[in-house]
Amino acid sequence: MRSSFPASTVLGYPRIGPDRELKRALESYWEGRSSRTDLEETARRVREDTWRRLAALGLEGLPSNTFSYYDQVLDTAVLLGAVPGRYRHDDDLATYFAMARGAEGIAPLRMTKWFDTNYHYIVPEIGPDTVFSLDAAKPLAEVREARALGLETRPVLVGPVTFLLLSQAAPDSPDGFAPLDRLDDVVEVYARLLAELAAEGVGWVQLDEPALVADRTPAELAAVEAAYDRLGRLEHRPALLVASYFGDLGDALPVLAGAPIEAVGLDLVRGTVEGVEALGVKTLGVEALGVKALGAEALRGKTVVAGVVSGRDVWRTDRERALATLLAVRQRAGRVVVSTSCSLLHVPYDVERETGLDPALRERLAFAEQKVAEVVGLAALLAATPGRDLPDHPAAQERPHAFPARTAEGRAPYAVRAAAQAEHLKLPLLPVTTIGSFPQTGELRRARAALAAGEIGEAAYESMVRAEIEQVIALQERLGLDVLVHGEPERNDMVQYFAEHLDGFAVTRHGWVQSYGSRCTRPPILHGDVRRPEPITVRWARYAQSLTSRPVKGMLTGPVTIVAWSFVRDDLPLREVVFQVADAVRQEVGDLEEAGIRVIQVDEPALRELVPLRRAEQAAYLQWAVAAYRWATSGASEHTQIHTHLCYSDADQILAAIDALDADVTSIESARSRGRLLGAVGAFPRGLGPGVYDIHSPRVPGADEVEHLLTEALRTVPAERLWVNPDCGLKTRSYEQVEAALANVAEAAARLRDRLS
């Protein structure tokens, strides 16, 4: 007989280390400064410290296999043997990092956003001929590692349906093939894995299926039913928790409720108890499956792992509201377990380390450690609350607020603007530029840290910033770039820098969150009304422009992205918060124009990220998000060229909204995805810069490779509207890599200009 699920758990935990120990170990290993043994020892310590800390906090159900050297989806591809032949290497770690980062002469796999978060995952390639084979070494090793510490754990895996829905067809796949076509083969590998874990004595396994909270077709729901019927009926397996998060399961809930599995994980922060009530309603998708209408008894035989503590924000949980939710679920389920709504991967480690925050604000915050304590406390409270009586469910309080009208008056038509800008800027065909940032050297980072610690003065720091700007401008002129940037040496991050200069934000010192691989950010905390007390970027843009006769871009982050990459107050509608930030950006655009800056880039890489997972909610979001961007930029004159940038975010899914932004030039990721977006953009009506240099990989593209990419782009984009640029900012690369790559980019553009002329 299988054991019951523990009373409290989390779906995952941060894995980079409280002081980014894994980040440093990874980068040292990649640079050849340390050995594989050194890297593995750091990873072991991070895992051990996590398990010990979770146990010390009183958490009963400890997850394992949530650690990753780069990304959990990439880990799953390796687990299943889904490794494209071009990456295979005698060294398993070399194979793994080649898929993530590329290798000599080989581009990495595509990377994109994990649902509506700022976490990025590596996109697997699956074809009709992909040979799947089980490599269970990693999950088994972590179970044994924790057991050696006296701790039993629950391995966590990306579920088979989500894995295939997030994959892309291999390049040589026939038309009409979809990775989900290989579900039967993948499920058989999962079956073998479950048998091995059962033989190891594992009691429970967690299979994550977040793709089920988006709109799914009847065929996809049938695939879910088939997969979990097969896995649930295995004779020798651990008990199964199928976890969803980021919203309501909708039509997928009755499918999972009817499957022969022991537990279902529900996000009851973004989802609702009413989503559970939907079990009693027949929908088209369920009818098409032939699944009978399921009433309130459907979950009686199931454990519900109730995600009532948010894994996506940093606000303390309303205990009364959470308890009311738990009791409501307990009326409908066989057993209720208290959990986080999703993995805590998306929040920092410990708010108690943030001694520099205002104490009143800190009292409102909960990072990963505090959220685990909330889960444990709620589990004890639930156990101590007798019966199934349902108390009043307090409604979320939203303070009254008057929304001021903001209507963008609109700029002149693009043709009029393009003519005015051509006359004013006098740019060549195929103008070469970059996205904004240049490498953040160790010297710059140390100087910024020394300034924060009071070890150097503001004057010394600014002198260093000016010197860096001078070098960046000189380098771009020497390489032959046409529209220059100042390199952003004064900025620690494209969002945090603005947060530090706007009222209504607070920034942390240790609040790091993993974005991908070794890349971490410190999301600001947006806790009050946003105002811009003074210009933010103008003096550095003006200084850079004074060093050259070529145009220098003013560099701003867009309002949607600033909000998306912050932890945002929950007492105002998100739309209103975005428009408050748009007001500040609009003021900054006006001041840059007044300072003589005639090219201004307002980046919105998070525009796609915030799109709701359910189609019914998407149009309303895109309408106000586009309106906020246009409010921020529409005050610019027709002579000022407005650029925007979107990267690694499946921008092809929102092309109409990108077009509606009405930017004069849009740059997009293209190198890593091998021009996938170009087929979708078609006759884009304004300037377009499909990236030709993948800055997330250390490899340097040759001039021939860049010329080929540009030639392919010219099949879709007219030469007079084609821009030449990297995929993203250059801050994570070294100057050696950047100089070599940009030299090749400029050479390729020059060759094509000669051919076209």
Automatic annotation (TrEMBL):
Q: Where does L-methionine bind?
A: 435-437, 488, 603
> Member of which family?
Belongs to the vitamin-B12 independent methionine synthase family.
Reactions performed catalytically: 5-methyltetrahydropteroyltri-L-glutamate + L-homocysteine = tetrahydropteroyltri-L-glutamate + L-methionine
The free-text function statement in the UniProt record for this protein reads: Catalyzes the transfer of a methyl group from 5-methyltetrahydrofolate to homocysteine resulting in methionine formation.
Q: What is the name attached to this protein's record?
A: 5-methyltetrahydropteroyltriglutamate--homocysteine methyltransferase
Give the organism, scientific name: Microbispora hainanensis
Q: Where is the active site?
A: 696 (proton donor)
Arranged from A to Z, the UniProt key words for this protein are:
Amino-acid biosynthesis, Metal-binding, Methionine biosynthesis, Methyltransferase, Repeat, Transferase, Zinc
Question: Which Pfam family, any one, appears in the UniProt record?
Answer: Meth_synt_1
Q: Ranges for the Cobalamin-independent methionine synthase MetE C-terminal/archaeal domain?
A: 430-750
Q: How is the cofactor bound?
A: Binds 1 zinc ion per subunit. Binds 2 Zn(2+) ions per subunit.
> What GO biological process terms does the UniProt entry carry, in alphabetical order?
methionine biosynthetic process; methylation
Does the keyword Amino-acid biosynthesis belong to this entry?
A: yes
Q: What Enzyme Commission number(s) apply to this enzyme?
A: 2.1.1.14
Cofactors needed by this protein, per the record, are: Zn(2+)
Binding positions for Zn(2+) 1?
645, 647, 669, 728
Alphabetized InterPro entries for the sequence: Cbl-indep_Met_Synth_N, Cobalamin-indep_Met_synthase, Met_Synth_C/arc, UROD/MetE-like_sf
Q: Where is the Cobalamin-independent methionine synthase MetE N-terminal domain?
A: 8-332
Pathway(s) of this molecule: Amino-acid biosynthesis; L-methionine biosynthesis via de novo pathway; L-methionine from L-homocysteine (MetE route): step 1/1
Q: In which residues is 5-methyltetrahydropteroyltri-L-glutamate bound?
A: 20-23, 113, 118, 519-520, 565, 609
**UniProt-recorded Gene Ontology molecular function terms:** 5-methyltetrahydropteroyltriglutamate-homocysteine S-methyltransferase activity; zinc ion binding
Please verify whether the record's keywords include Aminoacyl-tRNA synthetase: no
Residues bound to Zn(2+):
645, 647, 669, 728
* Residue sites binding L-homocysteine per the record: 435-437, 488, 603
